[in-house]
Amino acid sequence: MKYGSGKCPDCGNQSDYLRGTGGKSKLRCPPCFVKAFISLRCSHTQGEWALKTWSDSKYKAKVTFKLLGWQNDVIEKAFSVNSDGKRTHRFIYLEIPKKNGKTEFGAALSLYMLMMDDEPGAEIYSAAGDREQAGRIYQAAEIMINNNEYLSARLQTIPSRKRIVDKQSDSFYQVLSSEVYTKHGLNPHCICFDELHAQPNRELWDVLTEGTNVARPQQLVLVLTTAGIADKEHIAWLTHHHALQVDRKIIDDPGFLPILYCIDEDEDWENPEVWKKVNPSLGEIFDFDNLETAYRDAKLRPDRLNNFLRYRLNKWVGQYSRWLPMDKWDLCANNFDEKELIGRVCYGGLDLSSHQDLSAFVLVFPPVEKGEKWKIIPTGYIPKDTVLERSKTDGVPYDIWWRDGFIKATPGSVIDQNVIRRDINKANEKYKLKEIAFDRWAADKLITELMEEDGIEMLQHGQGYKDMNAPMKFLYDYVVNGSIAHNGHPVLRWCADNLAVEIDGAENVKARKDKSSDRIDLIVALTMALGIAIRAFEAGPSIFVQRIERGVSPFIVVGGNKELDDL
Question: pLDDT category, 307, cuts 50, 70, 90?
């Protein structure tokens, strides 16, 4: 390696840390040196750019890796140096949608760090949630090595171990996955984390990043990821949140470089100009029609919307698989006067959480005439003593919802179930409350009191496919068709937006509280109330059974039939 000072021949900037590979090679500033290595030694490995070459006046040879504008920008920022020649940034966080060339770029950077970063005995690790994901960067690097004489002469690939060895510098590149029990004692010079959101926990992250830079003064951590699930405790979300704070200059972390190609909260995800902003490779690696096709698919299939938002627009989402289309939900915010429902038939759903969390009691009122909508009256409960603290720590406006009357705060630091019991008995007096569904695992004292002392009809309702599939599908249909009215209740909407579902091979559906981004209690209570309403009518007149089987609401009165009032 040769060093010097002066003007970089590629960018024209003055630098005291010019470098070159020796011989007749030009001395370049650190970022331009990285660009030259990738452009002349690496190559594209997939699609129409594979093995393609380009002309560039800066280089005497053909370019085999075409660096795009955003990739040049990343290199210029990531490999800048301070006045002492040390890295300006030792932590690079790149968040970018899929299909923008992230994997090949990561492979090229890994090869540079392995061979050209002037670190004898360098250990380069490619890490991901599983070995297959981590191996994608290795596979691209292996193809680049096979495509270039210089790389193939210097580097040895060991496919069975997903390992690359550089004997000249006594360095190696190794693929790692999340099985961390064998990973202690590593001494990484560079860590390339691919798809950080896919890590099952933070153990591998901690093993590779906590204290490992002591013996590596020029260690570089590269995170190349798309958006994930907004789980407030996951290392990916925590790192993303830190990147946002650094990018917005809320906190000062000079060694951390955030590079974010993501949609802002106030931007319209359906605007093609936004698509262009967050997809810097649009028009190069893939075309606009490809993105538009994915958009149309997401519009037609709400269960695919989250994938479009995450993978194509780089938006962090609140659930794994969106079930309810929230644009349709918002159209169901039809206002109605609850007083008009006095004396009407209704069904209830009761979702009792732990004594500190949100609990829910939801009433649903079937239509009594053609064209009428289902009416929904939801109530949430939280402990009064924890409202302000939970609002701050969870980032959820419980305090505002309580102030505005959308949830009830019961006295004390735990939910007072006597308040819920009183509300249920008041509802039973005010309406024709036929039955209340409750989770059969909630073997709670309140259930016993309601049944044995208050005479309320309580029905167990499972949370598996058997009991949840039908009511969840009916709820979906009613939302899409605008057949419900919920008065724009913000807590119910929040729960609906948090809802994550699991779909089996037979397309049966159930809610997944453990995969949802936050509380879903009110929407679960609503679904259970709908479930027992369907169950009640399946045991009734055959006309209702037939309407259920045809996917038509069984509660619409046909031809003036008033059987509903008698059930």
Answer: confident
Name the fold adopted by 2-260. Answer: Rossmann fold (3.40.50)
Instruction: Name the helix (H) or strand (E) containing 423.
Output: helix 417-430
Contacts of 525 by beta carbon, 8 Å cutoff, 6+ apart: 348, 349, 350, 351, 360, 361, 362, 378
- pLDDT over 70 at 547, yes or no: no
> Strand 163-166 and strand 155-158: pairing?
antiparallel
Distance CA 45, CA 95 (A): 22
Half-sphere exposure for 526 (CA within 13 Å, toward CB): 29
Domain boundaries, the chain: 2-260, 272-317, 327-566
Of 300 and 9, the one with more pLDDT: 9
- How confident is the model at residue 566, as a pLDDT? 31
Token pair for 171: 């360095």
Q: What is the mean pLDDT of residues 377-395?
A: 89
Give 3-state DSSP helix, strand, coil % of the chain, rounded to 5. Answer: 40, 20, 40
Reduced to 3 states (helix: H, G, I; strand: E, B; else coil), residue 563 is helix
Phi, psi angle pair for 39, to nearest 5°: -65, -35
- What percentage of residues in the chain have a pLDDT greater than 70? 89
Contact between 291 and 279 under an 8 Å Cβ cutoff? The reply is yes
Task: Sort strands 171-176 and 123-127 into parallel, antiparallel or unpaired.
Answer: parallel
Residue 563 zone, left/alpha/beta (φ > 0; ψ -120 to 50; rest)? alpha
Helix (H) or strand (E) holding 469: helix 465-480
Q: What integer best gives the mean pLDDT of the chain?
A: 87
pTM for this entry: 0.64
**Can you tell me the distance from the alpha carbon of 312 to that of 332, in angstroms, rounded to the nearest whole number?**
28
- Which of 3-7, 20-24, 40-44, 192-196 is the least confident region? 20-24
3-state secondary structure of 224: strand
- Strand ranges (DSSP E) for 392-446? 407-410, 432-439
**CATH fold of 327-566:** Nucleotidyltransferase; domain 5 (3.30.420)
Amino acid at 46: Q
pLDDT at 255 over 80: yes
> Inter-axis angle of helices 30-41 and 102-115, to 10 degrees?
110
**C-alpha radius of gyration, the chain, whole number:** 30
